[in-house]
Specification:
Rossmann fold; 5-stranded mixed barrel; binds iron/sulfur cluster; 18 helices; OB fold (Dihydrolipoamide Acetyltransferase, E2P); pyruvate-formate lyase- activating enzyme
Length: about 500
C-alpha cells in the first residue's frame, strides 16, 4: 500500500511545537509519514496561534494556499488545529470552505477519529474543548481525568534527531484571564499533570537521548498537583525532574510574576541541573496599565521579585515580554516601561504591539486607541534600549570562559552545507564549522567545533560579542559532565570572571 503523507506547519509558542511533535507521533502510528511538500500531502495540517491578529491572518493565508493543491489532489484532507481552531471554527469554515476538519488543542488525541469521519464523507469534522469546567480549583481539576494525557504519552520512544533538547508539558490552560489574552478561552482552565507522569515521561526522554528538558506551562510556576494526600508544588517538581538520570539541564517557561515564590529560587540555587534563566513577562512598566491588563502585581513587586532572585542567584539572567500600545497607554506609561528596562537589565526582551482579540475583557471594555505608528515607534524604542543593554552586558563577557551545552551547527554552517549539497558537492561537516551552544544563563554561543561535540558540554573562551550572540573558541575538548563530582556546580554554573 502506498505510504500516506502528512504536512504539518506549526505557528506560535513552544506549546504548539510540542503539540505538533505529539501529533506527528500519533499520525505515524496511523501510517502517515511527514513530508515538506504541502502540495502533494494526503493530509495538510496547520497548527495555529490566536495570540495576535497577525498570527491568525498568517494561518488563513497558509490555508488559502492549500485550496489549489486540494483541488488538484483528490482525497487530500486539510485541517486546522491549535488555538485558532478552538477560538473560531465557524469563521474558519466560512472563510475557508476547503478545510475539512478543525481540532482544538485539548482534543488532539481525537485527530485520527476526525480523519476517519472525513474519509467516511463528513464535510466538516470538529473536536473542541468548550465543555471544560472552570468551576473547580486548579488542584481539584488536576485530579480530574484529562483526555489529552494519552497524547503526551504517545511520544515516540525511539532515539532520533532533535531529541537532545525536549519539551515536557507540566500544565495545560490558564486561569489568569489577563484582559488582553485569548489563551484561557482557547486552552481552557489551568490543569497540572500528575508529577509521576511528568517524571516517567522525562525518564523516557532521557532514555532516548535527551540531555536537556524544558518544562512547559502557561504559568508554569503555578504548578500544583496532589500526591499521596499532599500537594506537590513547582519547586519540588523541578528538583525531582532534575534528579532523573541522564538529564543534565532543566529549563522552564513561562512564569507568572504574581505567583512566583522564593522556594523556586532556592531550588534553582541548590540544584546544579537547573538553568539560571527565567522568562518572567512583565508586560508594562506602568502600574495603571498593569491594572488595566488585570496582571495581579505592581511594578514595585516585580522589581522586588527580580532583586530577591538576584540575591539568591547572582548570575540569574532574566528575559521579559512587553506589550506596547495597550488601551490608553500614554507617553508617561511608555516612559515607565523604558525606565523598567534600564532598571532590570534584562538579558533580552520580546516586544509585541497590542492587538485586540475577540472575547477578551480589553476588547469588550476598552478601545484599541493607540495609533499603529505610535505602537511601532514605542516598539522600536523598547527594543533599542534593550539592545544597548544586552550589547554592553555581552561585551563585558569578552575574555571570560563559559560552559555551554552544544546544541548543533550554527545557521550559517547549515546554510553553507546546504549550498554545497545544492552544487552537488559532497563535503560533509568540517572541524572549522561553527557550532552553537547555550550557557546556563541561556546565552547563545557560537564557536568552531566538530560533529562529536554536539550533545556534550564545552568550555568556550569568549572573544567577541553582539547584543544577541557570544563568539569564541573551545578551550577544553567537549566533555561529559560528571554529576557525582559536581561539575558545573551550583556555585558557578554560569560565567567565570575574565
Ligand atoms: S497569564 Fe495572562 S497572558 Fe499568560 S496565558 Fe494566562 S491570561 Fe494569557
Amino acid at each position: 500500500m502506498p505510504q500516506k503523507t502528512v504536512y504539518l506547519e506549526t505557528m506560535g509558542c513552544q506549546m504548539n511545537v510540542l503539540d505538533s511533535e505529539l501529533v506527528l507521533g500519533l499520525l505515524r502510528a496511523q501510517g502517515y509519514e511527514p513530508t515538506d511538500d504541502m502540495t502533494t500531502a494526503d493530509l495538510a495540517l496547520i497548527n495555529t496561534c490566536s495570540v495576535r491578529d497577525h498570527a491568525e491572518q498568517k494561518a488563513l493565508s497558509r490555508l488559502g494556499s492549500l485550496k489549489r493543491p486540494k483541488q488538484l489532489h483528490s482525497g487530500m484532507i486539510v485541517g486546522v488545529i491549535g488555538c485558532m481552531a478552538e477560538r473560531d471554527p465557524d469563521g474558519i469554515f466560512a472563510s475557508m470552505p476547503h478545510v475539512d476538519l478543525v481540532c482544538g488543542p485539548g482534543e488532539l488525541n481525537k485527530l485520527p477519529a476526525l480523519i476517519e469521519d472525513v474519509h467516511a464523507g463528513r464535510t466538516h469534522a470538529v473536536a473542541l474543548s468548550q465543555s471544560l469546567s472552570r468551576r473547580s480549583t486548579p488542584l481539584q481539576r488536576a485530579l480530574e481525568y484529562d483526555s489529552v494525557e494519552a497524547l503526551d504519552f504517545s511520544r515516540n520512544p525511539e532515539p532520533g534527531p532533535g531529541v537532545l533538547q525536549s519539551y515536557v508539558r507540566v500544565q495545560r490552560g490558564c486561569d489568569k484571564f489577563c484582559s488582553f489574552c485569548v489563551v484561557p478561552f482557547t486552552r481552557g482552565p489551568e490543569r497540572s499533570r500528575p508529577p509521576s507522569q511528568i517524571i516517567d515521561e522525562t525518564r523516557m526522554l532521557a532514555d532516548r537521548g535527551a540531555r536537556e528538558v524544558t518544562l512547559l506551562g502557561q504559568t508554569v510556576n503555578s504548578y500544583v498537583n496532589q500526591e499521596n494526600g499532599r500537594p506537590v508544588r513547582f519547586a519540588e517538581l523541578l528538583a525531582r525532574v532534575a534528579s532523573v538520570p541522564g538529564i543534565e539541564r532543566v529549563r522552564f517557561v513561562t512564569n507568572y510574576p504574581g505567583d512566583f515564590t522564593d522556594d523556586i529560587f532556592e531550588v534553582m540555587r541548590d540544584v546544579p541541573e537547573l538553568s539560571h534563566y527565567l522568562h518572567l513577562p512583565v508586560q508594562s512598566g506602568s502600574d495603571a496599565i498593569l491594572k488595566r491588563m488585570r496582571r495581579e502585581y505592581t511594578v514595585g513587586e516585580y522589581i522586588d521579585l527580580i532583586e530577591r532572585g538576584r540575591d539568591y542567584i547572582p548570575d540569574l539572567s532574566i528575559a521579559s515580554d512587553f506589550i506596547v500600545g495597550f488601551c490608553g497607554e500614554t507617553e508617561d506609561d511608555h516612559e515607565a516601561s523604558l525606565l523598567l528596562i534600564e532598571r532590570c537589565r534584562f538579558k533580552n526582551i520580546f516586544v509585541f504591539k497590542y492587538s485586540e482579540r475577540p472575547g477578551t475583557v480589553a476588547r469588550k471594555r476598552a478601545g484599541d486607541d493607540v495609533p499603529d505608528e505610535i505602537k511601532r515607534r514605542r516598539n522600536q524604542e523598547l527594543l533599542a534600549a534593550q539592545e544597548r543593554i544586552s550589547a554592553a552586558a555581552n561585551r563585558e563577557r569578552i575574555g571570560s570562559t563559559v560552559e555551554v551545552l552544544v546544541e548543533g551547527y550554527s545557521k550559517a554552517a547549515v546554510k553553507a552545507r546546504e549550498a554545497e549539497q545544492a552544487r552537488g558537492e559532497e563535503v560533509g561537516w568540517r572541524r572549522s564549522d561553527q557550532l552553537v551552544g547555550r550557557t546556563w544563563t541561556d546565552h547563545i554561543v557560537v564557536f568552531p567545533g566538530a560533529p562529536e561535540d554536539i550533545g556534550r558540554f564545552a568550555d568556550v573562551r569568549i572573544s567577541d560579542a553582539t547584543a544577541l550572540t557570544l563568539h569564541g573558541t573551545s578551550v577544553r575538548g567537549s566533555w561529559e559532565r560528571n554529576r557525582t563530582c559536581g561539575a558545573g556546580s551550583a556555585a558557578s554554573p554560569g560565567f567565570e570572571s575574565p
